[in-house]
Design brief:
Helix content: 25-40%
InterPro entries: Aldolase_TIM, ET-N_metabolism_enzyme, GATase_2_dom, Glu_synth_centr_N, Glu_synthdom, Ntn_hydrolases_N
Strand content: 15-25%
EC number: 1.4.7.1
Structural class: alpha/beta
Protein name: glutamate synthase (ferredoxin)
Number of strands: 31
Strand order of the largest sheet: 8-3-9-2-1-14-13-15
Low-confidence stretches: 1-94, 104-110
Cofactor: [3Fe-4S] cluster; FMN
Largest sheet: 8 strands, mixed
Region (Disordered): 1001-1050
Length: 1050
């Protein structure tokens, strides 16, 4: 766990409450907390693919900033997109921007949330006071700055306190407000008074343009003396605007009109210099949000309104933010406009890209043709919580209930549910219908939500945020994860339970009814005949048997392996191992060869990509023990307009996994509804290499564009050919998939078709994950399957099996084993990132790039981080060609080349941990030989460039300091501290060895969460010959050693 300076990790209160008097009647109380984190990487990048119609490309601009939390430089940023040319444009002309990983990583956080609701739906002062009390008790769940006063964020959402505002309106001479036709906006405006007036003018003009009457502005009274230094430096002007909507009668129509106004204001502000200082906390006739960059204990003191006895509400959602490794900002405090979110959306980049892709198809009568005016529906510069809130808000404003919206966005793990299909088949049908329409926003999430009429909570499919609920004889319902923040009489409890994974509970405020999980979802699922639509339109791809013989001879297979970059290690250590054992090969942890861009050997494009993994407090999933919540299923076909419900949206094909054999691919190609098209992926170098790859990519994207516009729902990008041609090498399939994926996104066509890769260039799980992560829904690895068949039919393999030296597998089983290994490997990769569904991983681009230049990233991997630049398209073409020419070489090689990427070999790739270096280091340490160490240093300094730091040199104009004036090492090491690593994350031996080593140095080790065995607390007194019965698994011990950690987390 990482914590801010001066913050103490406090223990969690136990679930208890006996003997405590309950003074709250007819209330629902919910309290949720937790920690999630993300890395801070602050960069600006925008890149777009060309659009049909001649819109110019824009460039990727990157600037590297460190991970330092720079409070003083924080500025409010609105939840709006910036227009590239700085000018206000019509929404139909806005050029889409792919979600950028740098922006996304810079806004991750975690928090504690809760709600209180009155079942009688009567405004109560007690509700507000209890919410503030509960929020104050959750201070230990949030973070604050080095000044100990600037909080990461806290806030409350309530119904609008009309009594308070009517009192103000009467004082201003406005008169009583018409509650049924008045909206209230809570707005953060620029600090500068002149800029604030400019912003108010823009707001007034938009409201006037929309036919709304602005009744007045109210300066929200606050106490700035209790705000921390850093928060005060960036504190906005906080104003409320009151508008009358006379032309609408229905509440939903009024809320839609206010939503449209806010979107138009945000767009108008985006072209102003102060645009990033305008932010709407809320604009509604039902709810209002008070929040800020404050500690939870002072929120009620900061806003005088919250202390006013006239501030009453029938419900309150409260939130305390923990912004791990990120810069807190006023707008990013929560609750958002609908949600209070505790967790992290791990698939956020893919979710944003898919939301952008479907913008062109989103239409609904409720918007009366104004859909273009409310785009975009996501913002990469906002937090993952803000974007999830935006998606939910859009669905709700489009006519969905909050419960339905969250069932669509955050579905439960319904496929392997033991009873759901039997008891509630209609709920399964609902999820089946929407699975192909909306990718799940996946990651640990506890969500509290309200639209002013319904208040509820739901958990993600893993249930990684605990939540209990109970009901009392006084008709009080509680939902909580931390008990003790408010008094409660346990003797009145008549029902108890907990929210399990994927479960939901909702309170209907007008009716006073509380609906538990099945009741909520059954009501939603029965609203349409989803079962009928699914059974009539959704098709399942039936498994097809693997081939029992090779399609080409061994010589042709060998040439294809050479042409597509296979090495002997790839075939023998990866493919053959997977075919024989049904699992991935096991190598040592780590990679000690040079990065692909620094290597002297040619590399496949995949080697330039590094997979990201789960953040600090976001646990990885165990794909073996938690496999019930995971799924590799994918849907192929057109994704329809999600705002319209009908049978045509269910017309798709379900694949049980993204790994296809030749027969299954053939079945897809014969599906008349998909109207599949095969696009060859070869580039012509007959007129030279330079420019050839770029020209072919342009033609490939144009061809994809054309066939999709003509109704194709399945694009098959294929490097399969009867005969290889020397002047027509295959485009790296990852480049082809990425380029087509990005092109279709930029042209609003991505939802119309799925992409399948039919390729020889894929055989490892990393390669499969790259293709899927950049847009492929499925992969047919035909050359890998050919290689499996070739291995099984080889004389060597037959003899080994006959002699009992290798388990006997049939040719079909060998291919099945390979596919099984790939699927298991994909589950492992998903689990490392905390993702449960492959469908959410598809297009999520959860990679960082090392060694590819802006030109390549712009075309195929837009939005991914490539900090150091690297290869151009022409350079990539030449690297690809270096493999391809081997298939046409006059040199009659009989074996694939061994590049030595996995195992060290003389003449192969350089390994930093090579035998010679290891021997020298061992000799220097064991013999305490300075001569041997000097030789080791010489080898170390003369080694090839291996990592990025090898390219750096110290540059200084200062004279060297004499060694005698330098602080001794023995003193420096006393300031060393280790990271907090829990026992289990590392082995007991490692955990104790680190503690002993740090204690010898005088430094500090960290126990990690959970503490440590008390046996480690006392110094050792029983050591003989380096061994101790107290710690028998360690050697090299000394009397006086202690394995206790100086820093303990409990």
């Amino acid at each position: 766990m990482s914590v801010h300076s001066a913050q103490v990790v406090q223990s969690v209160k136990l679930f208890a409450g006996n003997g405590i008097t309950n003074t709250n009647k007819d209330l629902i109380f919910a309290d949720f907390f937790g920690l999630c984190s993300g890395k801070k990487t602050n960069k600006n990048s925008s890149c777009t693919r060309r659009r049909v119609g001649g819109v110019n490309n824009s460039n990727v601009q990157r600037s590297f900033l460190g991970l330092k939390k720079n409070w003083a430089s924080i500025k409010s940023v609105p939840d709006i997109e910036r227009v590239n040319n700085g000018l206000l444009q019509q929404s139909s002309d806005l050029e889409p921007k792919v979600a950028n990983l740098d922006d996304i990583l810079s806004e991750r956080g975690a928090c504690g949330v809760g709600f209180i609701a009155n079942l009688e739906n009567k405004g109560s002062r007690e509700i507000v006071e209890d919410a503030l009390t509960a929020l104050g008790c959750m201070e230990h769940r949030g973070g604050c700055g080095a000044d100990n006063d600037s909080g990461d964020g806290s806030g409350v959402m309530t119904s609008i306190p009309w009594e308070l505002f009517n009192n103000w309106a009467n004082e201003q001479g406005i008169g009583a407000l018409d509650q049924s036709h008045t909206g209230v906006g809570m707005i953060f405006l620029p600090k500068d008074d002149d800029l604030m007036k400019q912003a108010q003018t823009v707001i007034l003009n938009i409201f006037k343009q929309e036919g709304l009457q602005v009744l007045g502005w109210r300066t929200v009274p606050v106490d700035t003396s209790i705000v921390g230094y850093y928060a005060r430096e960036t504190m906005p002007n906080i104003q409320q605007v009151f508008v009358q909507i006379a032309k609408e009668e229905n509440i939903d129509d009024i809320e839609r009109e206010l939503y449209i106004c806010r979107k138009l204001i945000e767009r108008a502000a985006s072209s102003e210099t102060w645009g990033n200082e305008l932010y709407f906390c809320s604009l509604s006739s039902q709810t209002i949000v008070y929040k800020g960059m404050l500690r939870s204990e002072v929120l009620g003191k900061f806003y005088f309104d919250l202390q006013n006895d006239l501030y009453k509400s029938p419900f309150a959602i409260y939130h305390r933010r923990y912004s791990t490794n990120t810069s807190p900002r006023w707008p990013l405090a929560q609750p958002m406009r609908f949600l209070g979110h505790n967790g992290e959306i791990n698939t956020i980049q893919g979710n944003l890209n898919w939301m952008q892709s479907r913008e062109a198809s989103l239409k609904s009568p409720v918007w009366r043709g104004r859909e273009n005016e409310i785009r975009p529906f996501g913002n990469p510069k906002a937090s993952d919580s803000a974007n999830l809130d935006s998606a939910a808000e859009f669905l709700i404003r489009s006519g969905r209930t909050p419960e339905e919206a969250l069932m669509i966005l955050v579905p439960e793990a319904y496929k392997n549910h033991p009873t759901l299909a039997i008891k509630y088949p209609e709920i399964v049908d609902f999820y089946d219908y929407y699975k192909g329409q909306m990718e799940a926003w996946d990651g640990p999430a506890l969500l509290l939500f309200s639209d002013g009429k319904t208040v509820g909570a739901c958990l993600d499919r893993n249930g990684l945020r605990p939540a209990r609920y109970w009901r009392t004889i006084d008709n009080v319902v509680y939902v909580a994860s931390e008990v003790g923040v408010l008094p409660m009489d346990d003797s009145k409890v008549i029902m108890k339970g907990r929210l399990g994974p994927g479960m939901m509970i909702a309170v209907n405020l007008p009716s006073g009814q509380v609906y538990e999980n099945a009741e909520v979802k059954k009501q939603v699922a029965l609203s349409n005949p989803y079962g009928k639509w699914v059974s009539e339109n959704l098709r399942i791809l039936k498994p097809v048997n693997f081939l029992s013989q090779n399609l080409v001879d061994n010589g042709a297979i060998f040439r294809r392996q050479q042409a597509h970059g296979y090495s002997s290690e790839d075939v023998q250590m990866v493919i053959e191992t997977m075919a024989s054992q049904g699992k991935e090969p096991t190598f040592c942890m780590g990679d000690d060869i040079p990065l692909a861009v620094l290597s002297r050997k040619p590399h496949m494009l995949y080697d330039y990509f590094k997979q990201r993994f789960a953040q600090v407090t976001n646990p990885a999933i165990d794909p073996l023990r938690e496999g019930l919540v995971m799924s590799l299923e994918v849907n192929l076909g057109k994704r329809g307009n999600i705002l319209e419900v009908g049978p045509e949206n269910a017309s798709q094909v379900i694949l049980s996994s993204p790994v296809l054999n030749e027969g299954e691919l053939e079945s897809l190609l014969n599906d008349p509804y998909l109207k599949p098209q095969v696009l060859p992926t070869f580039f012509d170098i007959g007129k030279g290499v330079d420019g050839s790859l770029e020209k072919t990519l342009d033609k490939l994207c144009e061809a994809a564009d054309e066939v999709v516009r003509n109704g194709c729902q399945l694009l098959v990008l294929s490097d399969r050919s009867d005969e290889l041609e020397a002047t027509r090498p295959a485009i790296p399939i990852l480049l082809a998939v990425g380029a087509v994926h990005q092109h279709l996104i930029q042209n609003g066509l991505r939802m119309q078709a799925s992409i399948v890769a039919d390729t020889a260039q894929c055989f490892s799980t990393h390669q499969f994950s790259c293709l899927i992560g950049y847009g492929a829904s499925a992969v047919c690895p035909y050359l890998a399957l050919e290689t499996c068949r070739q291995w099984r039919l080889s004389t060597k393999t037959v003899n080994l099996m006959r002699n009992g030296k290798m388990p006997t597998v049939t040719i079909e089983q060998a291919q099945m084993n390979f596919c099984k290994a790939v699927k298991s490997g994909l589950m492992k990769i998903l689990s490392k990132m905390g993702i449960s569904l492959l469908s959410s991983y598809c297009g999520a681009q959860i990679f960082e790039i090392y060694g590819l230049g802006k030109e390549i990233v712009d075309i195929a991997f837009c939005g991914s981080t490539s900090s150091i630049g690297g290869l151009t398209l022409d350079e990539l073409a030449r690297e690809t060609l270096s493999f391809w020419v081997k298939a046409f070489s006059e040199d009659t090689a009989k074996r694939l080349e061994n590049f030595g990427f996995i195992q060290f070999r003389p003449g192969g790739e350089y390994h930093s941990n090579n035998p010679e270096m290891s021997k020298l280091l061992h000799k220097a340490v064991r013999q305490k030989s300075e001569t041997a160490y000097s030789i080791y240093q010489q080898h170390l300094s003369s080694r090839p460039v291996n990592v990025l730091r090898d390219l750096l040199e110290f540059k200084s104009d200062r004279s060297p300091i004499p060694v005698g004036r330098v602080e001794p090492a023995s003193s420096i090491v006393e300031r060393f501290c280790t990271g907090g690593m829990s026992l289990g994350a590392i082995s007991r031996e490692t955990h104790e060895a680190i503690a002993i080593a740090m204690n010898r140095l005088g430094g500090k080790s960290n126990s990690g969460e959970g503490g440590e065995d008390p046996i480690r607390w006392s110094p050792l007194t029983d050591v003989e010959d380096g061994y101790s019965p107290t710690l028998p698994h360690l050697k090299g011990l000394q009397n006086g050693d202690t394995a206790t950690s100086a820093i303990k987390q409990v």
